[in-house]
Amino acid sequence: MLPNRARIADPFWTSYERLVRETVIPYQWETLNDRVPDAEPSYAVRNFRIAAGVEEGSFGGFVFQDSDLAKWLEAVGHSLASHPDPDLERQADELIELIVAAQQPDGYLNTYFTIKRPDMRWKSLTHCHELYCAGHMIEAAVAYYGGTGKRKLLDAMCRFADHIDSVFGAESGKLRGYDGHQEIELALVKLYRATGNERYLKLSQFFIDERGQQPYFFDREYEEGLFSPWTEDGKSGKPDNAYHQAHLPVREQTVALGHSVRAMYMYAAMADLAQLNGDRELLEACRRLWENTTTKQMYITGGIGSTHHGEAFTFDYDLPNDTVYAETCASIGLIFFANRMLQVEADSKYADVLERALYNLVLAGMAQDGRHYFYVNPLEVWPEASEKNPGKHHVKPTRPKWYGCACCPPNVARLISSLGDYVYTVNEQARTVYAHLFIGSDYETVLGGHTVKLRQHASLPWQGDVKLEVSLPEPTRFALALRIPSWCTELPRLAINGEVTDYSSGVKAGYAHIDREWSDGDRVEWLLPLSAEWIEAHPEIRANAGKAAIQYGPLVYCLEEADNGKPLASVSVRRDAPLRARFDSELLGGVVAIETKGRKRTTDGWSGQSAYRRSGSASGAASSAADIPLRAVPYFLWGNRSGGEMSVWIRVSDS
Amino acid sequence: MLPNRARIADPFWTSYERLVRETVIPYQWETLNDRVPDAEPSYAVRNFRIAAGVEEGSFGGFVFQDSDLAKWLEAVGHSLASHPDPDLERQADELIELIVAAQQPDGYLNTYFTIKRPDMRWKSLTHCHELYCAGHMIEAAVAYYGGTGKRKLLDAMCRFADHIDSVFGAESGKLRGYDGHQEIELALVKLYRATGNERYLKLSQFFIDERGQQPYFFDREYEEGLFSPWTEDGKSGKPDNAYHQAHLPVREQTVALGHSVRAMYMYAAMADLAQLNGDRELLEACRRLWENTTTKQMYITGGIGSTHHGEAFTFDYDLPNDTVYAETCASIGLIFFANRMLQVEADSKYADVLERALYNLVLAGMAQDGRHYFYVNPLEVWPEASEKNPGKHHVKPTRPKWYGCACCPPNVARLISSLGDYVYTVNEQARTVYAHLFIGSDYETVLGGHTVKLRQHASLPWQGDVKLEVSLPEPTRFALALRIPSWCTELPRLAINGEVTDYSSGVKAGYAHIDREWSDGDRVEWLLPLSAEWIEAHPEIRANAGKAAIQYGPLVYCLEEADNGKPLASVSVRRDAPLRARFDSELLGGVVAIETKGRKRTTDGWSGQSAYRRSGSASGAASSAADIPLRAVPYFLWGNRSGGEMSVWIRVSDS
Q1: Angstroms from B408 CA to nearest CA on chain A
Q2: Residue B449: is it exposed, middle or buried by C-beta count within 10 angstroms (0-12/13-18/19+)?
Q3: What is the pLDDT of residues B242-260, one digit of tens each?
Q4: Residues B182-209: tens digit of each pLDDT
Q5: Deepest of B1, B125, B465, B590, by most Cβ within 10 A of its Cβ?
Q6: Which residues of chain A does B317 touch, with a Cβ-Cβ cutoff of 8 Å?
Q7: 8 A C-beta contact, residue B410 and residue B366
Q8: Residue ranges per structural domain of chain A
Q9: Positions of B marked active-site
């Protein structure tokens, strides 16, 4: 059964939901139909028309182009669930007719292989994203069914999943393989939850169990003359199993390695299976991979993946701020993983990371206009270097328009339009409802046979006041577990029906458990102390040595050239520099800015005729710094004003 | 006429000269003959045997493989000049027989084109290093003639140059082109100096004048279906003229751009021509390019070229320490350029850079065993990142063995074996002999018709005492101009025949001019104050913000993990930290080490379970640093003990 979703009604997030609904989804529909001037054509809808036989032509776009359309449809499904829109629904229904028309009699669906390489079906799992595309269409089908109750695409995807199940498996005669890009695994779990058909759960388990077993599947494909859609001659180099997280059986993996989006999608599926099957060994692997990812390989913004070479993880504590990758999609995958872990075991560390990635990295991925996106999310930008140093070409100082490879924008859209899935989880045995995120919303669940409704009011990220109203048909005992965010400098204050309440004895794994008989109309106030704080990085993170960052509640801040001039590297602060949070309604649509005092090295005494000098000389550095006011803005809004320098980490002068 | 060369006899440099003579040259000969086990074959000698018709087979190695052999032969020529060695000379004579046998009847010589692509002769200047190889063989011929007086190769190369002159030129029917990799230009100047034949000077001038004129020559080659030896199908992408410094006429160029070795070789030739032709416009271009290269795009080590993508310059002040390229060959090219500028105008800024690149970068390029070489010379190394972060794969933590593309090792060999060319220059009109480098040596020149001999004793880099003895047949008036190194913290002390002498009125452009009637047996003492100094970088160099480096005389120092633990990023010093220089006879064969006190962040209070924390917390960073002793070693010797971390720039805690 699919879990209930909270309906968002929040002063901060509602505007993002609206942006997705009113701008991103329509704009994306135009791009999928090749109707945006000056943008590369997507070919996504056209490919389906050709595969369905209603248009002539050849396949266009990437081998995984179908997934763009699937992700759009998934976002539409989520959006319709909370905001019915007959016109949008009609558009989607027509698209689903087309998709189903493109499906082959045996249930197979993939326009690349149907149009261009029918001979290669299931023959290049390493490179062709064939099951990845299937997974996205399954996720779309489940979302659309959830949003509208319509089964047409869901039924079609069950036929496709049945077909996949007939092709892949451990049984003799079946293909003992898996996809180069994980995604089908978590999608099949969703399909299982939506239909109750255990066949899909088992198929997901097969893919997870098989991965990384020897002899390696991708090596076997390679030995049989692996086809690649990425080279002119169709030839493939030897696959790098670690890039696909297929170098070891998943239960033996201990560190996050390889392509970061693939890793996250796989870990999320592993957590799903650990939960549904009570698989302790798999859960242990998930915990290890979580710890490694989030405590050794994650940026303060919630970004993951340190290198653009393979969009990949590198190794522990290697977190360069300027040559970083930190793809938006990877952090969305991290949120999926966190969400699954919270369903297995409520520990605030998962929600802390989820919130960090959501408020900082994912939001940074999208411009305030909803039409420009970062794929790469740097923590330090020098625009001239992005232009002129090839090692930084991938780091853009401003958000580009929708790309040809449009993975990130539709991923942002589907996440934000399903944000209500991330606010609460329920442990029915323990009769506990966990509030992980503090986002204004309406939520309904069933605990011990009683329908419990929670209306939440929140004022994050600018203020920390949270209120919850309980609606119940009759008094009911259950625990409301409120997350104590790691960014709270002191414990939040709790008041129940206006009375301040001590909850210290009920704190478990970062949640305040309020276990009582609740009555209709009970009011809970949860007051989160919000203040600006200096943050330091682990000494092993060499890139941040001698530097500090600013956080205010869940938000990471940054310095921008627009406020502080350049070079930002010349700016430093004393470790005890006071931070002042001030709401500025004129700035970036209204934000809390953080003000402090800094010092800036000047070029006094530098003739421009040398690059180095003795610092003991009369005009040495000690005297050539000036006091300046500094203003930091939320990282998620950087690059909305100019293409100037930006830096999250600020040099600290010890004193 | 070729200028006289000083004969090196120096406690520091003689051992390098010997290393080149006794180890590098013989070892390199083995590699050129494919006789080194476990090393990639060079094919260089074999290619000549095939081209000469004494062996059957196909061409091996890179398109520029001939140049490796030429550079070896050049080093041999230089070495024989100072250290006759009949066996080596016989070996070289035999090789020259072979080279001449491979020369074509029209004078042409290039084994790649003779063996493999005779149809492509002079048809892919963009990519094929055809004139580059010619230039290196000409340099070899001049050096061998200089070292032995034998003309066989010189005459052969005159025939080749005559052939080139018949092919290239502005005249109708000739090819108005130039090479993708500059080198022929400076070689032809050397050939002119050796032979007095102005045809070679004019041909060099043609190549320099033609470069960057529109329509672009490389574009014309491209439009005619440019062949590339670098792609499987032989097809070429559109040439990047800036990469080859062919984007603008050379006189209009203002910033160092593109492949850094090509740039330096070209600038050196430009300076040669500016001097020989009194070409003011060309000289102005040289000055501009010098200023840009050395004051905006040079590392403190004398390294140039910030990116491995194209082994190229990026832009002003972009000098990352860890993703750096700073190829050994590029700094050798910078030394060539500096040497030529000193011949045009004696200004100590040229010699300062020459010395910086020589003592730090070039020497760092070679291991103490003479058999391992850095091509890339980083200022900051984290070995695990070199291995696991693809953006740093090019940065090696230890010197690898001779590469397949062996450009740097023979370049080091030919530079060190001709080091005597860099010590002095003479301005005959002004009757001045300039001492640029302080290296023990014997030098002889003619001033105003009199033979002047200078014997220099020096103790650099460890001590600053320099002595010069003048030998003269009869008293002669001339000026001895002694460089005042930029690293002197106060003016050097001068004593003539034991008497301290005030020279302050005779300081011009960084040289103390001692203009007097000199007598046989006059003794000059030039006492350079040597001390360890903190150096800071220009505020626009973002990579060095808040950091300082240590210099002791001409030497740049670095911290190594072997002495100071890791991570080195955790180490900081106060700006007023005292530096103590101490000679340690046990360390790295005997060096002055610099000792100071530092602080090191500890991991106290870090659980390993988080990457970030509030720095205001009880166990904050302020309290979690420990005082430690620090020891810095000369940069040129880094990586001779271990594959650990290394850093030139050290974080400074202001206070």
Answers
A1: 23
A2: exposed
A3: 999 999 999 999 999 999 9
A4: 999 999 999 999 999 999 999 999 999 9
A5: B125
A6: 611
A7: no
A8: 424-527, 533-604+622-653
A9: 311, 407
